[in-house]
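User:
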Amino acid sequence: MHPSSALADQFYRRLRALDATRRRVEQLFANGSVSRRDVERVYEALFLNAVALFEDFLETLFVGLLVDQQGLTSGHADVNPRATVRSYVVARELVMGGRKYLNWLPYSETKDRARVFFTGGRPFMSLSQDLEEHLSTCCYIRNAIAHRSQHATDMFLEKVVGSKALAPRERKPAGYLRSIHIALPPPPFSRYEHHVGEVLRAARFLAA
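Assistant: Predicted structure:
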C-alpha cells in the first residue's frame, strides 16, 4: 500500500515544471525575445495541461483507493470502497465501465461516480464548496480555451470575468490568466498562479 499523499506530491512536482516554463517565457518576453501573443499562447497551453494533469490525478486516486492491499491508503479515516478489488486492472475496468475515456471534470462527474463506488462518496464528496466552485471556474476557463465556441466564451465572461474591472485584453482567457491577481507584496501573483494553486489545494485535500 502507498499513501495517497504521494500522488499529490507528484502532482505538485508536475505543476512546478509547468510553472518553470511560464517563468522562462515571461523572462523571454521581458528581454524582448518573444511577443505578448506568444506569451499568452503559452499561458493557454500551460493551463490546459494543468487541468489535464488534475483529471489524471483524480482518475489515478479514484482507482488507487479502490484497490485493496496493493492500492492507495487515504489519510481520511472514512474512506470505504463498496467492494473489495485486489487488482488495478479490474478496478480500472469497473470504473471505466467499458469506455475508453472518462470525464472527471466538471467535478460533478467525479462526485456522481464516487457515490457509486465509495460509501458516502468519500473523500470526493468531502471537498469544500469553495474548492468545488473554484474547479467549476477552471472548467469555464478550460472550455473557453479549448472550444472557442460562442457558448464557451459567453460562459467564461459570465462565470469567470463577471463584474471584475479588467482591461479588454484581460477579458479573454489568455489575458485573464496572465493578469494580476494580487499585486502586493511583490512579486505580482498572476491569476494563472492563483487558479493552479487552488487546484493543487483541492488535490492535497483529496489525497491527504
